[in-house]
């Protein structure tokens, strides 16, 4: 299974709660760039996304919107209606063990390509967990890490910075 783990784009701090923080204009551009990168990669490999999992926080939802626009800009235009999922299980303080259990379930259901858009510290912890603490990524805003995971151990393939 290929898993792309992405941190949301740069977000501002003008919100009443953490979950209501919005992307900055720079954050939107970063996410759009990453959508272009991922769309090109999927097109080149003739792949698709079986599942897109996004945190319910506003900045991750906005990140997905921009990623989708970037993917569409390079001609990657499948319908995401049946594969997108907003999940409370990938908010900042969520458990990487719980996420990997869900990924294992998705793999058992036939999923081969999954995009996950979340937050620090979860994205950092999840990469470490999936690679059995052999690899880590510095997740600046909108960084996208690609992992090949066999259900037990993962290997970090690429890290794309906007």
Automatic annotation (TrEMBL):
Query: Which SMART domains does this one have?
Result: PGAM
Q: Which GO terms describe its molecular function?
A: protein histidine phosphatase activity
SUPFAM superfamilies registered for this protein in UniProt: Phosphoglycerate mutase-like
Cross-referenced InterPro entries, in alphabetical order?
His_Pase_superF_clade-1, His_PPase_superfam, PG/BPGM_mutase_AS, SixA
CDD domains the UniProt entry points to:
HP_PGM_like (cd07067)
Q: Which GO terms describe its cellular component?
A: cytoplasm
Q: Where is the signal peptide?
A: none
What Pfam families would the database entry show? His_Phos_1
For this entry, the protein name equals Phosphohistidine phosphatase SixA
Q: Which organism is it from?
A: Actinobacillus porcitonsillarum
């Amino acid at each position: 299974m290929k898993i792309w783990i992405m941190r949301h784009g740069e977000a501002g701090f003008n919100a009443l709660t953490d979950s209501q923080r919005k992307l900055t204009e720079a954050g939107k551009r970063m996410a759009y760039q990453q959508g272009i990168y991922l769309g090109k990669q999927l097109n080149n490999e003739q792949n698709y996304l079986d599942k897109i999992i996004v945190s319910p926080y506003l900045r991750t939802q906005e990140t997905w919107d921009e990623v989708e626009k970037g993917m569409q800009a390079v001609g990657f235009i499948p319908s995401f209606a049946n594969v997108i999922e907003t999940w409370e299980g990938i908010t900042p303080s969520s458990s990487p063990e719980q996420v990997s259990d869900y990924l294992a379930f998705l793999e058992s259901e036939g999923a081969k390509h999954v995009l996950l858009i979340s937050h620090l510290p979860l994205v950092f912890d999840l990469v470490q967990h999936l690679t059995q603490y052999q690899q880590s990524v510095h997740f600046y805003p909108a960084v996208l890490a690609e992992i090949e995971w066999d259900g037990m151990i993962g290997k970090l393939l690429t890290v794309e910075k906007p």
